[in-house]
Specification:
- This protein has 220 residues and is mainly β.
- The protein contains no helices and 21 strands.
- The strands form 6 sheets. It has a 4-stranded antiparallel β-sheet, with no helix packed on it. A 4-stranded antiparallel β-sheet has the order 7-8-9-10, with no helix packed on it.
- InterPro entries: 6-blade_b-propeller_TolB-like, NHL_repeat, TRIM-NHL_E3_ligases.
- Keywords: Repeat.
Length: 220
Amino acid sequence: VFSKDGTAVRRIGSKGNGNGQFDRPWGLLLVGDRLYVSDDNLHHVQYFSATTGQYIGQFGSAGIGNGQFSNPCGMSTDGKGNILVADYNNNRVQIFKEDGTFVQVIQCDGKATDVAVDNEGKIHVTIQSQHHVQVFSSDGKTHLDTYNNPAGNFNTPNGIAIDDEGYIFISCNNGYLHVLSPDRKEVKLISGLSNLWGVALDKDGYIYVAEYGNNRIMKY
């Protein structure tokens, strides 16, 4: 946990497979006072007090059934009490209640790395293996659209975030950060980075990108 200026404040958890421990923590999601963390190697999601870091609970296990994961990655919330988890190797997104109760599956056409919900409630999923984003209806039952960046350089998308105005921010493993307008046109392309994964926005309009290849967070 860092302050706004990047000063390290504290840390949550330790290495291991017990409650409150991590093997390979991947996705982060803040919902109210809860911090949800997906673990790519332990195939579950744990949640903590966002203010104290205290372990509260977890859901999921390794497998292909409802409520099970195979390398869970990015997460999002729809603002209606549901949590969406990109279930990477099961080629899907799963939806849960905030207490971990399974709701439904959204089947994708490839390896799902991250998920974001836009201001209309539509669900956008980055599909790493297909180099595009799939869009589903707010109830997750209808595939509406598929897109990438028509300007190119859209290889292995790993992270996605959408602001309140509908602008889309997508990080790609080939070192590009794409900014698309609500109608999917390129607004900005940031290049020269290394192995990008998660991307997040704050309320002040700053963009944060996990640059895996250089062991750092980039802020724009």
